[in-house]
Each structure stands twice: as structure tokens, then as C-alpha cells.
Amino acid sequence: MPQRNRMLPLWLHFAVDLLLIAFLTTSFYYAYYRLPRNLESENIVINRRNDNHPTYNDYSSENHESELDKDSWVVKFADKFTDSLISTEDSYTSPDISVKLTRNTIGSGKDTITYYLADIYIADIECLQTGFAKDTYGVGYTENVIDMHRSLSAILAINGDYYGNGADGTVIRNGIVYRTKADSSDICVLYYDGTMRTYTADKFDISKAAKDGAYQAWSFGPSLLDNNGGSLTEFPTSRRILAKNPRTVIGYFEPGHYCFVLVDGRDTGYSSGMTMSELSSLMSELGCKVAYNLDGGQTSVMTFIDSVVNRPYEGGRKVSDCIIIKERKNKK
Amino acid sequence: MKKFKDILYNLNIVLAGMFIVFQILDIYNPTMNFIGNNVTVYLFFAFCVLSIVNSCFLLVHNRRTNR
């Protein structure tokens, strides 16, 4: 009598397939997004030229105000800086930096929103820098913002655009171009001359940005304001991202004057978060000319002096990069 | 041959399932770009090829059955 071929029951076939789907998807996620691996950097250096900031002069106790260009940020924002370092719980001033931190609450009950505004004046563009987790450009390298804050000797820090979440998206940090391959997100560029501009992916020209003296570039978005600094109501992103969430924003008023905004969320009664429209309205009300949304949700963290300022959702998460304010290393 | 075909059919189901998961993940976190990254582009190509091969097997089988 011939032996009958044993066949697996159909349900077992499908069960094995489902298990394989789960296993392979999870394995791919960890291998592609979590396992540390260095990314190949394009390593194009954009040097700071004198004409990127034609009106800047170094300031030291030996310089006299009369020798300083009247348009330099030191003179322009003289009332914001102090001759010596003064640090309090919610402010930091020095000859080169002024940071004023305020905690703001709007609404009440379950609609309460709490946000932190760091109003920043700097005497030199290099007081605003960016840092990589573990000081490494790559995927899978992550660190808490507070740890990066400390290792970089920062005064103020926020999370960045989490560039390490993928292999696409323009990355320019501290004058070095790491990645030119754009994705579909809006790009924010901070130039050596202190100006900040945002671009849609199709309108961004990396060569022109480099020629114009790009100093930092982030890829996350969206851009929150129109060309006149007015608020927007429509954004090119998913419904989930548009909903109320914790937010991190970098804002620009004029060269030398910026702000970091951190909105807490997912914590009813303390802060429910902001929709993208609400965020846009806030940045417009603050008077920003440019405002750019960075990675939010559990990623949103702001640190000041030596501690976390906000209440990150579920304690926050480790991130691949940060934006910091710090004293310049060498003053001429 | 039958076992080989079985493997191809299951592989097709697995790849399709993976792309459904990627699509859902992309809705939740579009910045991670699960569907359009360097690796999944090749996986999608493999999925398309497998779909064509399996459809061919099915067409041939149907024709033989109908004779």
C-alpha cells in the first residue's frame, strides 16, 4: 500500500507564515534602524567666510565699543548680554550668550497646554551648534539629550531631527555636509550669516545652500510659517502627526536672535500637546519669521544648565542628535 | 516541484504581510520611511517577481485542469 503524503493542515501553513512575517519584520527593523552602523559621510566642509558675517568683529575686554561694527550682534543686542557670566534658574547671560527660559501654560482642565520657551540671543553663530549621539554619525547611535548636553558643555539643548532614523534626508552639521540625499520632508537651513530659511524638498538646492554658507541643515519639518511669518493651517504630513503631540521647534526672529520651543503633551491636565496648526499659530504670535518643527512625541526634550526642563512623555527617549547653545571655544 | 511551489506561495504571503506591516508603520511614523528605503525597494522587487511567477503557475495549472 503506497504511503500517503503527509500534508500540514492549512491553518498551520498560515500560522507559520504569520510567525515568519512577525519575525522577519522585527529582524529587519532592528537590523536596519537599531543596530549601530556608521553611515558614509560625504564630508564636504563649508567654511565660514568673512563675508558670511561681514559685520562681525570679535569682542574682548580689550576691544572698545567704538571699534565694533554697529551691526555686529554684540552691539545690536548689547542690552541682552552681560560683561560677566550670570546664571539663574531660568536665565543665562554672558558676553556672548543670553538665554531666557519661561514656562507657559495656556488653557485649563483637560485642554491645558504647557510649553517652554527659550529666548536666545548670541554674539556669534558658533554659539549655536549641533551634536551627534556618541559623537558618531550613523544609524543606531543614540543618547539622552541630557547626556549630550553635559558631554558638549552646553548651556541649553533640545533634541534635533533624529537624522539616524533613516538613510535619507539632508544632514549638515557645524558646517560639514554629511548627507545630501534629500527625502520628501521640508528642510531648514541655518546659514553662517545667522539667517534661517526653510525649503520644500523640491525647491532645495544643496549646492546653492553650500555656496551661500549653510552652517546647519535639518530634515524633519514641516515648516510652520509662510514667507511673511504668518501661520499655516495645512501641512504635508499624516493625520497622526498633525494631531495633538509633544513638540520641539526651532524659531528664528533675525540673525543672532532665535528661540527653542518645547511643548509637552500626552499628559492630560498638565499638557495635552499641540496640533500642528496650534503650533504654527504660537510661533507666529511669538513673532518668529521662520519656525521649523523638529522630531516630537516621546523625543521632545529640552535641557538647561544641567537638568531636563520639561516633562518628556514616558521619560523621553534616546536620540541621534541635538541642537545646543554653548560658549564658543576660542575667542580671538 | 510541488514542495518548491508551496515554498514560493508561502514566501509570497510572507512578503505581502511584511509590506502590509510596513505600510501601517509608515502611517504612524512616516519619517522612518519603511516602504521606500534602500532595502525594502529590493524586497518589493522580489515580491513583484514572486507574484508573477506564482500567477504563471496558477494559470498553467488552471489550463491543465480545464483540458
Report on this structure.
The complex is a heterodimer of chains A (332) and B (67). Chain A has helices at residues 10-34, 73-76, 145-151, 206-211, 239-242, 276-285, and strands at residues 37-38, 44-45, 86-87, 91-93, 97-106, 113-122, 128-132, 138-139, 156-159, 171-173, 176-179, 187-191, 196-199, 214-219, 247-254, 257-263, 290-293, 302-304, 307-308, 321-325. Chain A has 332 residues and is α+β, with helices and mostly antiparallel strands. The longest helix of chain A has 25 residues, at 10-34. Residues 52-67 of chain A have low confidence and may be disordered. In chain B, 84% of the residues lie in helices and 0% in strands. Chain B contains two helices and no strands. Chain B has helices at 2-28, 38-66. In chain B, helix 1 packs across helix 2. The radius of gyration of chain B is 15 Å and the shape is elongated.
Helix and strand composition category of chain A = alpha+beta
Radius of gyration from the alpha-carbon trace of chain B, in angstroms:
15 Å
Order of helices and strands of chain A: HEEHEEEEEEHEEEEEHEHEEHEEEE
Biggest sheet of chain A, open or closed, and with what strands and sense?
A: 7 strands, antiparallel
Number of domains of chain A: 1
Specify which chain pair forms the largest interface: A-B, 25 and 17 residues
Q: Name the helicity range of chain A.
A: 10-25%
Which structural class best describes the helix and strand composition of chain B? Answer: mainly alpha
Strand content of chain B: under 5%
Quick tags:
heterodimer, A: 332 residues, alpha+beta, 5-stranded antiparallel β-sheet, B: 67 residues, mainly alpha, 0% strand, elongated
Could you write a compact summary of the structure shown?
The complex is a heterodimer of chains A (332) and B (67). Chain A is built from 6 helices and 20 strands. Chain A is of the alpha+beta class and 332 residues long.
Write the layout of secondary structure elements.
The complex is a heterodimer of chains A (332) and B (67).
Chain A: H1 10-34, E1 37-38, E2 44-45, H2 73-76, E3 86-87, E4 91-93, E5 97-106, E6 113-122, E7 128-132, E8 138-139, H3 145-151, E9 156-159, E10 171-173, E11 176-179, E12 187-191, E13 196-199, H4 206-211, E14 214-219, H5 239-242, E15 247-254, E16 257-263, H6 276-285, E17 290-293, E18 302-304, E19 307-308, E20 321-325
Antiparallel strand pairs in A: 1-8, 2-11, 3-4, 4-5, 5-6, 6-16, 7-20, 9-18, 9-20, 10-11, 12-13, 12-14, 15-16, 15-17, 18-19
Chain B: H1 2-28, H2 38-66
Helix pairs in contact in B: 1-2
